[in-house]
Amino acid sequence: MISRKINKNYLDKIIQKFKKVNTAEALAKQAKRIKFGVVNLANKIEYKEIFSKTAAKIKNISWKSPKTIGITALALAVIFSGCFYFSATTPAVGIVVNGKNIGYAASKSEAKQLVQEVLTQQGNTAGTVAQTSDTIEYKSVRLKNKDYTGPVSQDVLAKAITPYVNGYGLQVNGKVVVVLASEQDINTLLKKYEDYQTKPSKNNTVSSVKIVEPVSKIASKVHPGEVKTVDAALEILVKGDVAETTYTIQENDSLWLIARKNNMLTDEVIAANPGFTEDSIIQPGQKIKLVQTKPYLTVRSEGTKVVSEVVPFDVVSKTDRSLGYGKSIIKQAGKDGEKAVTYSYVEENGKMIEKQVVKEEVVSKPVNQIVAKGPGRSIVYVGTSRGSGSISGLSWPISGGITSYYGSRHGSFHTGIDIDGVTGQPYYAAASGTVVEAGWDGGYGYCIMIDHGNGVSTRYGHSSKLLVSVGQTVSKGQNIGNVGSTGNSTGSHLHFEVIINGSTVNPLNYL
Ligand SMILES: [Zn+2]
Q1: What is the CATH number of the domain that holds 367?
Q2: Which of 267, 169, 272, 145 has its CA nearest to residue 217?
Q3: Which run of H or of E encompasses 436?
Q4: Ligand 1 is a single-atom ion; what residues have CB below 5 A from it?
Q5: How far is the CA of 485 from the centre of ligand 1 (A)?
Q6: Sheet of 351-364: strands edge to edge?
């Protein structure tokens, strides 16, 4: 294949040779043809100027010598090989990314546009046009027609170019947790997260909100895919970080105690350690895994809440000698009242840390239940009262994290909640009532039980010290004992039970 390049000097040489030869009729015709072909070609290509000049020079040649035939034939061969080259190849622009040719476009402007389109598309998810630090060069070339199959595809180009966008990282404790498009987006995110955790409403006036962790916003260059929308970022913050830590078993540890120490459930400790069961024997020094989900941010809020609470009715019994021995009838059905309780609180991520009643307003008074009883043996109440089972305004006996919840635990049933505390820390009566138990009670250790009337009572286990005695009347919030670890306990905490008509219930439904 002939593929010689025509350049200006080469054409001038040919023209010089043409000038030396004599005219011939046939040769003149050929020359006209050459001129026609050359002008046609010149119109098509960028060497137009050169060819026009050449054509003009050819026109002025006097064709006299027979030698011209040979030289013209040579010239023709050269010119046609040039024509062939131009018609068999096509101009293109190579897109070279970091020194590597990725593909071609028809022109430099098309090549630049292709790159721009890719960056626009890559930046789309981040709501902007991406940029790149790659070195992109555009090189003009001629390609054989069969080798140029059109401009490089977006996919190929996108794979070759590494894009970045300018985002803003939300940094918590020095670690970037999520990247957003702008500083304003981060502010919106933090506000949304605060609202999510504090849930302000007409019954919940949030007076102060603070994010506990040190938070900063930093401008950063990131891959466009890393930039999150505010809503997607909120989801990440709400889900929290899954942190895996290693725990070394201490002397006298149990799975339950490890869970307690780490504010986890025993089941969660077991789940993180394949092969573990409730009955697994653990050895001091042994290392186990703890997998916990921890929120990235803690929102500490203060405010006041107004909640509607039930005022339980009282049961009043009257002796009616007209009734049979041991019989009783309800003369008047009791009806619970309602009160609006305003309390001030301190919460962390929606969990109550401190709670104090500031106002109580009776919305509707309870109606006593009146029971008429026939004559009978006087009943000795050893346990607690029975009644409607209505609970009104139980307050937390101590503030602290719950280290074990009500429900199934190690194949048995945990009849209360365990609240974290230190030995000697005072705890308080959840409501007013009468002390029906104060002393050692097996697994409960030193234990207090208070009858609040209406069939409701509360129990406080593992005390280090008891400050009340049986028969004593106590008021809500009165310091009745101190936290300890007596009885079946492996660490200082308060075991707190709520009992309704003799059965324990989940205290969290009543606090
Ligand atoms: Zn307990």
Answers
A1: 2.20.230.10
A2: 169
A3: strand 433-440
A4: 418, 495
A5: 11
A6: 204-211, 299-311, 337-348, 351-364
CA of 386 to the centre of ligand 1 (A): 24
How many Å lie between the centroid of ligand 1 and the Cα of residue 407?
10
Give the integer Cα–Cα distance in Å for 181 and 15. 66
The answer as to whether 1 is a domain residue is no
How much distance in Å is there from the Cα of 260 to the middle of ligand 1?
A: 11
pLDDT higher than threshold 70 for residue 486? yes
Residue 379 is assigned to a structural domain of this protein: no
Residues 415 and 460 in one domain: yes
Tell whether 44 and 55 lie within a shared domain: yes
| pLDDT (0 to 100) of residue 35 | 47
How many domains does the chain fold into? Answer: 6
Ligand 1 centroid distance, CA of 389 (Å)? 22
Could you report the per-residue pLDDT of 162-179, keeping only the tens digit for each?
999 999 999 998 899 999
Boundary-marking domain end, from 330, 356, 373: 373
Calpha distance 6→8 (Å, rounded): 7
Q: Are residues 104 and 84 in the same domain?
A: no
Least confident of 40-49, 128-137, 287-296: 40-49
Q: Which of 294, 315, 335 lies at the terminal end of a domain, its last residue?
A: 294
